[in-house]
């Protein structure tokens, strides 16, 4: 990636695979990154097929100018298994959202955690030395845990509707700074930052944790986003948490990290995030 890709006459081929895929903002985001950095790209949305997904990947990467792909639900686990090499974060999460073509094969990476951390820090939600509550133990939480630990938190408590799944993520993390906690017991701890890694807000629901966890006005982050505040962000704000935001910045942050992995160039996420926020609000 040390070559001057921005000076290359090649138009690099990129894509995002998922199902559903129509709503994906990835082509828009990466086209803006490409314009910023002077890279020539094409970026497709491709509907993945469960029975032939790996064949679709193989076909895409047969193109000489194919540089990489993003992968969204429900194909992240298959993408991780298919790649020639997996990062430590991918091994932990058993899922990949980014594939990179190199001279030695396809590398699987997950940029979700770094996208989350970059957005948290951008919004003054500090992690170093802080106590975190991570709600959820599915793919989003698995993808985040390694990057959160890299920021040296004091402790991360994981709560989940299924205590067994929370404990499974604790075992995956394999770090003394990570432990599970029941939903009811969350009120017995004080948190500096609460992260909702469930998709409940997409249905207008909220995790079943006590209102008392918001009493100390922690920073609050919801990994999903909508045109207005999510149900979890609304609840946190109604209980006095002024610094509560959704996950749109995480979307842009993880895309910026993918772009860097492909091209060795760091785009500026700020104008892209501003454009998407404006689009979402309809203004």
Account of the 3D structure:
There is one protein chain. The protein has helices at residues 26-37, 53-61, 76-82, 88-93, 112-122, 139-150, 163-173, 231-238, 248-263, 269-281; strands at 11-18, 40-47, 66-71, 85-86, 98-102, 105-109, 131-135, 155-159, 178-180, 193-196, 219-222, 244-245. By secondary structure, the chain is α/β, with parallel strands linked by helices. It has two domains: 5-110, Rossmann fold; 114-248, NAD(P)-binding Rossmann-like Domain (Rossmann fold, 3-Layer(aba) Sandwich). α1 crosses α9 and α5 packs across α6. The longest helix is centred in the last third of the chain and has 16 residues, at 248-263.
Blueprint (SSEs and pairs):
Elements: E1 11-18, H1 26-37, E2 40-47, H2 53-61, E3 66-71, H3 76-82, E4 85-86, H4 88-93, E5 98-102, E6 105-109, H5 112-122, E7 131-135, H6 139-150, E8 155-159, H7 163-173, E9 178-180, E10 193-196, E11 219-222, H8 231-238, E12 244-245, H9 248-263, H10 269-281
Parallel strand pairs: 1-2, 1-3, 4-6, 7-8, 7-10, 8-9, 10-11, 11-12
Antiparallel strand pairs: 3-5, 5-6
Helix pairs in contact: 1-9, 5-6, 5-9, 9-10
């Amino acid at each position: 990636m040390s070559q001057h890709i921005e000076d290359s006459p090649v138009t690099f081929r990129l894509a995002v695979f998922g199902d559903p895929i129509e709503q994906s903002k990835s082509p828009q985001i990466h086209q803006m990154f490409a314009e910023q950095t002077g890279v020539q790209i094409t970026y497709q949305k491709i509907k993945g097929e469960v029975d032939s997904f790996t064949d679709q990947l193989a076909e895409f990467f047969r193109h000489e100018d194919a540089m990489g792909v993003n992968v969204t639900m429900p194909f992240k686990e298959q993408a991780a298994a298919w790649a020639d090499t997996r990062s430590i974060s991918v091994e932990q999460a058993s899922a990949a959202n980014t594939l990179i073509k190199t001279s030695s094969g396809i590398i699987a990476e997950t940029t979700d955690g770094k996208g989350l951390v970059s957005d948290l820090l951008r919004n003054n939600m500090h992690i170093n030395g802080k106590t975190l509550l991570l709600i959820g133990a599915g793919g989003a939480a698995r993808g985040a845990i390694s990057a959160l630990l890299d920021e040296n938190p004091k402790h991360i408590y994981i709560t989940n509707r299924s205590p067994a799944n929370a404990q499974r993520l604790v075992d995956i993390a394999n770090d003394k700074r990570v432990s599970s906690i029941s939903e009811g017991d969350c009120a017995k701890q004080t948190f500096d930052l609460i992260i909702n890694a469930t998709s409940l807000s997409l249905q207008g629901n909220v995790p079943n944790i006590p209102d008392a966890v918001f009493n100390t006005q922690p920073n609050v982050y919801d990994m999903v986003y909508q045109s207005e505040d999510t149900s979890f962000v609304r609840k946190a704000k109604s209980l006095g948490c002024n610094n509560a935001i959704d996950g749109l910045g995480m979307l842009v942050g993880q895309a910026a990290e993918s772009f860097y992995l492909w091209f060795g160039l760091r785009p500026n996420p700020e104008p892209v995030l501003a454009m998407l926020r404006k689009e979402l609000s309809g203004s």
